[in-house]
Design brief:
One of its GO terms (biological process) is aldehyde metabolic process. Pfam families: Aldedh (PF00171). This is Aldehyde dehydrogenase. InterPro entries: Ald_DH/histidinol_DH, Ald_DH_C, Ald_DH_CS_CYS, Ald_DH_N, Aldehyde_DH_dom, Aldehyde_DH_NAD(P), BenzalDHMdlD. The protein is 43% helix and 19% strand. It starts with 5 loop residues before the first helix and ends with a strand. It has 14 helices and 18 strands. Helix 2 crosses helix 6. The chain has 436 residues and is an alpha/beta fold. A 7-stranded mixed beta sheet has the order 10-13-14-9-8-15-16, with helices on both faces. Strands 5-4-3-6-7-17 form a 6-stranded mixed beta sheet, sandwiched between helices. Strands 1-2-18 form a 3-stranded antiparallel beta sheet. The protein is globular and about 70 Å long. It folds into 2 domains: 238 residues, Aldehyde Dehydrogenase, Chain A, domain 1, CATH 3.40.605; 181 residues, Aldehyde Dehydrogenase, Chain A, domain 2 (3-Layer(aba) Sandwich).
């Protein structure tokens, strides 16, 4: 797959700047038609999506249908249902000193948006921001991840079949293409990816004072309390950790369990993991051989005890579903986000000290999870653990609700989206006062 040339990117950008000034992208009917065209194009290319994600990431059809295609279609349908309401200017009160007059808040589009998609959910996490750009009334340059070339090609075909390039265009490439795109006089940037690249994006945005959203990651903790339902804990952890081979930014990255419950929980985790992921390759593929080797090195440096898994095949990009117990806070597996099918299990005695350690070692993760039968106690604990999002007695699935904002805080991200929050992310509030 060839990188998009600088000349082509500049042509797309200039055409989108001109097209945006005409005002068509702001119109409700235009936005609705654009969403319907995108929905039809995704459906028409569904078989290509299945094939591309099987090749790039080893994803099976059910996983793609739920977390990729289905998630995008649901977001489109939700936007179509609520778009007219979102776009309606809101009248607010006017103080007595400014009477007689009326005051309104309008949501205005930014202009040309640059959307950088990641590799782990290439359809979902590229198309959902695009939906936000469309409903906000913007044009968009979309750069899929170069690490998933088959998915990137399908994304380009979908966009080309649904939109004129003066409205939405796909650019392909890696670091050099990204650096050039970030040098343009963009109106808004939406980036999903690693904190390291997020810092580069933030620096580029700062140079030109471009507003942005960063969706990053972090080590998401699972805190198990002594009254938790261990069968529920095991079911949720195995689902959340090993789905998409652990390459989910809100996946449980490590589990904290009371010493007295460790054996019972580990027994359940081993049995369920062995049942659902019985062999090397069962979880799917990691993105690169280098990532497999990275996990091998981290596991080899760990002082924890491997109770299941540990095998790998870098040539095939496989890493077995792996459980490691007796892990300490200073262990190699606790230093950075793992982003793979490898789960450290940490025992604790003192709950207050454990909460303090979460905040000390892994401050403000993208998500935090607590398992307890006492809802109020769970909420009280979450209040002490700053994170982008959180759940009690479940993992990951909060991201499926269009009624909830999804996003990080500080090192795990800046800004949020999904549903109406996507509309808000891709617009700015403009105050308008009218005097008779």
């Amino acid at each position: 797959m060839r990188d998009t040339s600088v000349a082509q990117i500049q042509q797309y950008f200039s055409a989108q700047k001109d097209y945006f000034t005409r005002g068509e992208t702001r119109q409700l009917a235009f936005k609705q038609r654009a969403l319907l065209k995108l929905k039809a194009a995704i459906s028409a290319h569904s078989e290509e999506i299945f094939q591309a994600l099987a090749e790039d990431l080893g994803k099976d059809r059910d996983q793609v249908e739920m977390a990729e295609i289905g998630a995008v279609i649901n977001e489109i349908d939700f936007a179509l249902e609520h778009l007219e309401q979102w776009c309606t200017p809101r009248e607010v009160q006017t103080p007595a000193a400014l009477q007689p007059s009326q005051s309104f808040i309008h949501h205005e589009p930014f202009g040309v948006c640059y959307i950088v998609g990641p590799f782990n959910y290439p359809i979902n996490l590229t198309m959902l921001p695009l939906i936000g750009a469309i409903v906000g009334g913007n044009s968009a340059l979309v750069k899929p991840s170069e690490s998933t070339p088959n998915a990137a090609r399908v994304i380009e075909k979908i966009v080309a079949s649904a939109f004129d390039t003066c409205h939405v265009a796909v650019i392909q490439g890696g670091r050099e293409v990204n650096e050039y795109a970030l040098s343009l006089a963009l109106d808004f940037i939406f980036f999903t990816g690693s904190p390291q690249v997020g810092k580069v994006v933030m620096q580029a945005a700062a140079r030109q004072l471009i507003p942005f959203v960063l969706e990053l990651g972090g080590k998401c903790p699972v805190l198990v309390l002594e009254d938790a339902d261990l069968d529920q804990v095991a079911e949720q952890i195995v689902f959340g950790r090993f789905f998409n081979s652990g390459q989910t930014c809100i996946a449980p990255d490590y589990v904290l369990v009371p010493e007295a419950l460790n054996e019972a929980l580990v027994t359940r985790l081993v049995a369920l993991t062995r049942s659902l992921y019985p062999q090397l390759g069962s979880t799917g593929k990691l993105i690169t051989a280098r990532q497999v080797q990275r996990l091998d090195q981290l596991l080899g440096s760990s002082t924890g005890r491997v109770v299941l898994g540990g095998q790998s095949d870098s040539e095939q990009r496989y890493f077995a579903a792996t459980l490691v117990e007796q892990v300490g806070w200073d262990d190699s597996l606790m230093r950075e986000e793992l982003f793979g099918p490898l789960l450290p299990i940490v025992q604790y005695r003192d709950l207050d000290a454990t909460v303090a350690n979460i905040n000390h070692y892994h401050y403000k993760p993208l998500a935090a999870y607590v398992f307890t039968k006492d809802r109020e106690r769970g909420l009280a604990l979450l209040a002490k653990i700053p994170s982008g999002d959180a759940q009690i007695n479940a993992v990951i699935t909060h991201s499926m609700s269009p009624y909830l904002p999804f996003g990080g805080v500080g090192p795990s991200g800046i800004g949020s989206y999904h549903g109406e929050y996507s509309f808000s992310a891709f617009t700015y509030q403009r105050s308008i006062r009218t005097v008779p």
